[in-house]
Amino acid sequence: MSHLTRRSALSACAMLLTAASTLAGHAQPIAASGPIRLALVESLSGSFANTGEAVFRNIAWAVERVNSRGGVRLPAAAGGARLLQLARYDSKGSSEEALSALRAAIDDGARVILQGNSSAIASVLIEAINKHNQREPDKRVLLLNYSAVEPSLTNERCSFWHFRFDAHADMRMTALMDVLREDRRLSQVYLIGQDYSFGQAVLREARRQLASQRPDVAVVGEELHPVGRVKDFAPYAVKIKASGAQAVITGNWGNDLTLLVKAAREVGYDGMFYTFYGNALGAPAALGDAGVGKVVAVADWLPNLPTAGSEAFYKSFRQRFPDPRDDYVHMRMQLMVEALAQAMERAASLDAVAVARALEAADVTLAGQSGRMRAEDHQFQQQLVVGVMDRVGAPGVQFDVEGSGYGFRVVRQIAADQARMPSSCRMQRP
């Protein structure tokens, strides 16, 4: 899944070209003022292009859903019913390019920025938006974050203009530990992560929680590696195997995870992997049978969640994107777009301050999954689930990942109230 298929690429382009006409078959009025422009600022080329394209599919699908029911319904004074229009801006995995993309998006009329696949990039965007909104109050923008989970972004560095729809790294680690602490076979673990704010935060929190919940478990290795630049993880895998660790804890994502687990399989490492993102983007296929019962992943939602609403939701995604290589769907991204549409309608305006205040009270449900925004820090509160990799057809594994023949059986559901963590945010509001 490292690249879109030609069919998928054409489909993606078609989504952009037809976004403004989605209502044609629904006999809904289209406001003369035009669509509401959303800007996706993401890695659409380079090492993490697959993650950016996967996010684009999710958000395009969510936009289609809103538009199919008439778009965002605003009062006549605000333009009446308005469609959402999703535009793409390639950050190329670079903070500098992301800032250029932000400026271009604002110049093009976007007032909502969507980003997530890098906490480092999210950090620079938040800072830039804080400054921009102060300098140009008539062109204020909001940043909706679906994946940048470095904890400080909704703690000491929180911003009125930033809303996070993913559980932050400490919340995800707590959910993983809820399963890991019960594995009495573990006596040694290895920590490995990407060398930037997020990866550092994951390893730091892993050490802290191990010390408090499993003081009997020794950390026998700790490694940080360059983000998106390692092509051969064999040297890391050899060290992991030689350490004697029975488990690896990692927040790696994208190719940095896929290549790591592939290298581990090739050197014969047979320990557990406790991951943030091991349930997608090639990781299950890379491990094959070696990962059965040994890869644990935490998420806000998994396709094999045992509810009728969840099953119907996943099947509808597969109908929309039938190529199994396009299999990357995240409930939180769907809830994010639903929350934005809800906030705009409640604000009865597209003014950034009014929409932000309405978004602080967002409470959304889709396919039986619910979440609400916490106003004090703009950290979305939702359930978390933990799954274990198994063969499709095994009990609890109806759906596989990316046509690999392997899926994730849900072994733990953690309610939003249990997943909640305190915040140190001291937000400044306009």
From TrEMBL:
Domain called Leucine-binding protein: residue spans: 35-389
Signal peptide: 1-24
UniProt keyword list: Signal
Keyword Calcium belongs to the record: no
Transmembrane domains' residue ranges: none
InterPro entries: BCAA_transport, Leu-bd, Peripla_BP_I, TAT_signal
Record family assignment: Belongs to the leucine-binding protein family.
Official protein name in the record: Branched-chain amino acid ABC transporter substrate-binding protein
Source organism of this protein record: Melaminivora suipulveris
